[in-house]
Amino acid sequence: MGTTGFDAGELATLLDGRWAGIRKQVRDALDGVPLQPGDDLDTESHRAQTLEQLRLLAKSGITDLGFPVAYGGRGDTGGAVVSLEMLAGNLSLMVKAGVQWGLFGGAVVALGTERHHERYLRDIISLDLPGCFAMTETGHGSDVQHLRTTATYDAATQEFVVHTPHEAARKEYIGNAARDGRLAVVFAQLITGDKSHGVHALLVPIRDEAGQALPGVRIEDCGRKAGLNGVDNGRLTFDQVRIPREALLNRYADVDPDGTYRSPIASQSKRFFTMLGTLIRGRISVAGTAGSATKLALEIALRYGDARRQFERPGTGRETVVLDYLAHQRKLLPALAKTFALHFAQEELVSTLHDAPGGEREQRELESRAAGLKAMSTWHATQTIQTCREACGGAGYLAENQLAQLKADTDVFTTFEGDNTVLLQLVAKGLLTNYKDQFDDLGTLGMAKFVADQFVGAVIERTATRSLVQRIIDGSGKDDILDRGWQLKLFDDRERHVLDGLGRRLRKANRENAFEVFNNAQDHVLRAARVHVDRIVLEAFVAAIERCRDRRTAALLNKLCDLYVLSNIEADSGWFLEHERITPRRSKAITEAINALCGQLRPHAVDLVTAFGLPRQWLTAPIATGAEARRQEAQHAQHAHETS
Amino acid sequence: MGTTGFDAGELATLLDGRWAGIRKQVRDALDGVPLQPGDDLDTESHRAQTLEQLRLLAKSGITDLGFPVAYGGRGDTGGAVVSLEMLAGNLSLMVKAGVQWGLFGGAVVALGTERHHERYLRDIISLDLPGCFAMTETGHGSDVQHLRTTATYDAATQEFVVHTPHEAARKEYIGNAARDGRLAVVFAQLITGDKSHGVHALLVPIRDEAGQALPGVRIEDCGRKAGLNGVDNGRLTFDQVRIPREALLNRYADVDPDGTYRSPIASQSKRFFTMLGTLIRGRISVAGTAGSATKLALEIALRYGDARRQFERPGTGRETVVLDYLAHQRKLLPALAKTFALHFAQEELVSTLHDAPGGEREQRELESRAAGLKAMSTWHATQTIQTCREACGGAGYLAENQLAQLKADTDVFTTFEGDNTVLLQLVAKGLLTNYKDQFDDLGTLGMAKFVADQFVGAVIERTATRSLVQRIIDGSGKDDILDRGWQLKLFDDRERHVLDGLGRRLRKANRENAFEVFNNAQDHVLRAARVHVDRIVLEAFVAAIERCRDRRTAALLNKLCDLYVLSNIEADSGWFLEHERITPRRSKAITEAINALCGQLRPHAVDLVTAFGLPRQWLTAPIATGAEARRQEAQHAQHAHETS
């Protein structure tokens, strides 16, 4: 028990969670390895540095976690996600690692079979074979089911002919493509005879060992980006490129030598979304990394806010520490509370992924959860890092203080691995259709019909923590804003109400007006997804507190949880008041309670954010590492001397 | 009258406003001059390029606007602000120009006298003398009245000794300091005999003609920043640097050869804030430039959104243009409406500055207006450019599409020329004290006493447009959300109510609890300032529509104004419902009306944003200039061919 009034060790253990061992291993493995991001490098130098660092990472022994034991891996899916998110201090490195071992390597594992595993996995793990994940096209970013690249089987030579039919079908923003990748997992419409069987993945070599583009492959450079310039994003265009029949990643479908197409999954759409579902790890990793970047930004801003002084406090002869100002607390502490909430929700999500849900419905729920949490975590990162930059003033704008790079690097997180606005619509559709397996195939019109026929009302899905939550709700007799049962019920109720209202609106759709009805309700659709995720995240926070074994630590977490809940209600108070879920009087009380909680949590802010245990080497900002504090102290000593 | 249903020429004329001549002149002067920002430059190359471009700008004949006619200028203060904001496509250039001709040159004009004007102004205008504005210190950013650099008069040699007493007193983030500046306007505590007379400005040479730092001057480099890397920000430390007595910028105070201090303004604080007040142009320029950057970002995102298609629309065989989606309209069109509103408010502000208010109270109102509008415009820029980036997906992340640079460059606008959170507090204090001239000198304790004694209730200040606004309010019989009178009254009423409530809270303060009472109300203080600015901005929009001579154009502007108002109410619906200013039913109607307005404005979106008339050379993003549209058309033609 420290002087902080809570058990920092217990909190750290709780936050480290199920993969505490992996987290420790990563901290140890990274310690002393020169992985800091480059300073003021041009794009080519930054890419070269990042590749060198990727090689160091490959040697560190933490990049094999997600691969099968049989090929030198450790078969630890959750560990792979957790280890990746701990690279928060060098996001170019994180993304390049994610492309190599997550997207590229992960696709070979998940969509390939023994012939691919045997041939490639060891080289992928060791980085002897750098690769790409070539899905997105210029014309089709979000609507991947309709991408245009083709892979046409030629029975005469037993080859696939991979081809880009027009410029908009070129592969776009492909990580590792502009400089380093040699082999690409290419998603294309598979055609045998004259029949298209939908999107499949194939392994297409794009560069020789000397780094030259192979015949028929045109490689362009996406050039400078807002951030992540250590990652070489490029464009791939294929001109009748021939690859052997065995290059098809054939876990879910195969083509016989004579061109006969076979798949255990009859529906083309279901097959496609089954394949996509196996790749969900990338999306979950982005959510985790967004969380880590947010934590790092908050640690910098809170440490600076805890040392920086500005404006003399009357009667004290000293200036006020900026984190003592309510406005400063209001900027940073609700964001900290939400970061805790998302951390626990992410841990739950990773656990579910790791334990691999058995049924189709469970898989759909996992995918929906991943989509929703990715959207909310990445938006939270964008907003929070922005706020941290502003809270550090001019110092926050200097590269040396890290926030500039964190902001620029994470900015695209809201876009890649699924555009957030599109993802939230998937979440809402899942809720409306109760995760029926046709869901992704429905399209607007089918959706309308489906909802009209079958939607009977919002179903609050069961989660691992649902029984605990129900117990708290049932046990709550108090109608108090700090009563957890009241809070949980309020979030439940909001979700049900929004979803039921949405269902009623969409049932008005028919063949003629389906697009208009859906489009006019789009803001309602997005709200439904958001309040659903809010509820899931709150439940994860509540469950985590239940696991805490130290009374004082739990008390502090309960205050953080209150701050998360009440900030959420305050931000959405228009809805709660409009729907008469809270009274004007209660709304005012909530604002006051938030201010009070900020004051109560403020003394613990730095300890709380430190407990996330980010590897210490990532914290390099002079404003966070004490230089600023020492400078200020010197100034005050001097000032005291001058005026004495 | 075009096919768009409104008169684009009339709209452009209205937007060009009072300085239409200057705007045209700048467009012509910049045409063909190679001022595009560099691509993928390291910091030193970027700085070199920006200095070269600054030289081209000096030759273009538009940088002399703000200087007195007697020294080769044109004496057009408003024109100087407007011309600067038109550099939106290269913000490093804009900021470096702002430092040289706005802050540095402007301070010599405003705080110096003939001896300084005669000696320096021609060289400043021609850029033969590059200079710095050295106010901010490491320890004191926002609280400039308490900066620590000293300028001690030595009567024996008739010199000032400029000195940095400790590290936190070094000048920080000084533009032009790291590389190019030769002379600096340095703000320091002026000491004669043993008496300090508060902060004054002095001209201190920092580099010789060869670019070497002068004896006693230590120059450090702030290094890489999030953006604006064409500007060489640096740190200045002075070690007993001697400058002649005449180097004091002596318009408001002077020191006789024997050390006698003289000033026409008795109060030290009033003198300081009078000096500061003459420098208000810099803050107003930042608001204007933030507006221009926002317009450029919106033009890029709207042009792309108007061409980009994604997801097939059932029954049409074509994909939907993304700007037809309600969610996309919701992202961009309320931001466009607010950009119009802020544009007209900015024009009003520049006009007031240009016409130089006579009285002290009017000057205070101008300063308050500048502070408030700077805060709201720069936050709007940060949010809108972020949204535009996300709305353009992966393409928005590529440097070639400009949004990355716009975001990175404008990010610090919320901080420099006054931290927004601090500025809003100044606005609120002005409102509470009704712009009494002591206001800046009060401090927390004095403020509390002052409010307790004198605050009698919110006063809605008179503006140029107030009589028009009152007429509309008085003439309004309708209680309809689209009735302008109702809207104006609602904004008025919100401001009064928030301010009155704040006054009542602050009156509880006494000597013992003053800090706590103020700090606990800080969110209330910020809200008061925000809703005040919202009201001012709305009134400016209303007045502009009144000036519009074309009926159909006015009708379109009225829709934009409705969207501005209703989006503002929706975002603040928690307050309006909590205070029973709108009913739940009306709140729902407002959401529906916003969606309807988005649909009505959508066909005009590109024409509306184009009417701002940004110099065409700034629009270089391939996604905005048609390449993307052509690519998509090609894709669809191909697709139609394939499936035919």
From TrEMBL, chains A, B:
Domain Acyl-CoA dehydrogenase/oxidase N-terminal: 22-126
GO biological process terms on file: fatty acid beta-oxidation using acyl-CoA oxidase; lipid homeostasis
UniProt-annotated location(s): Peroxisome
Enzyme type, top EC level: oxidoreductase
Domain Acyl-CoA oxidase/dehydrogenase middle residues, every copy: 132-241
UniProt EC number: 1.3.3.6
Keyword Lipid metabolism attached: yes
Domain Acyl-CoA oxidase C-alpha1: 277-432
GO molecular function: acyl-CoA oxidase activity; FAD binding; fatty acid binding
Source domain of life: Bacteria
UniProt signal peptide: none
The keyword Oxidoreductase is assigned to this record: yes
Main subcellular localisation: other
Keyword terms, alphabetized: FAD, Fatty acid metabolism, Flavoprotein, Lipid metabolism, Oxidoreductase, Peroxisome
Record-linked Pfam families: ACOX (PF01756), ACOX_C_alpha1 (PF22924), Acyl-CoA_dh_M (PF02770), Acyl-CoA_dh_N (PF02771)
SUPFAM superfamilies linked: Acyl-CoA dehydrogenase C-terminal domain-like, Acyl-CoA dehydrogenase NM domain-like
Swiss-Prot/TrEMBL cofactor(s): FAD
Segments forming domain Acyl-CoA oxidase C-terminal: 493-624
Family designation: Belongs to the acyl-CoA oxidase family.
Protein name: acyl-CoA oxidase
